[in-house]
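User: Can you help me understand a structure? I only have the sequence.
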Amino acid sequence: MRSMALAAVGLGALWLFSAHSSGNGKADVSTGREIRASRYILVDSAGKERGEFGMTADGEPALRVWDRESSVSATVEIDSRGMPRVALERSDGHPLVELGVLDKEHPVFLMHDGAGVRRVGLVVAGEQEVATLVYDGAGQQRLRVGLDKSGNPEITMRDENGEGRVHITHNEKGGAGIDLFDSKGRARAVLQVDSAGSGAAALVGSDGKPIWTSAATGP
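Assistant: Let's start by predicting it. Here is the structure, written out as tokens:
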């Protein structure tokens, strides 16, 4: 981030100098001249490229700076959706960390492994809804822990195909429940406790019909 800040300062200084400079290199604040370009390159004392400020292939502005080995870059840009994005990326283009927005109000933070596969995400999806998402090595979401649209806590566990298999909830009325699903997404076992403390359980066959239920028990 220090390199990014230095790059921003350097580019800002370049703009100020160019905007208030006459053709002979002398300061000229009276004419209000400006410089227009689609790409700026920042180089170090050895002439090696260390930063770039320009327009992307999508026609959006982007600022990127590299470390000394050009192995990791930091980018601040407007993405193809027209939304701001900050990223740390490897030289092969694989992201390591990303900070962006789903829309103009809801941020998202993503972390990737060395292969560029998304592994952890933190999303604010609405006024009440927020979630931490965990992905496996194939990029498949396997765990979601957060609050639903009503602000109630919930946990969802998924199999390698992305099918929800375990769902744990707590609602605004004080009740709680655990639902277990088979590989086809069919509910097969249910355990519930209501706000009064009464509990009930049920086992369900593959045809959706109950094969066993327990009588509700009080607190």
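Now, to help you interpret it: Confidence is low (pLDDT under 50) at residues 1-29. The CA atoms of residues 50 and 66 lie 5 Å apart. Let me know which part you'd like to focus on.
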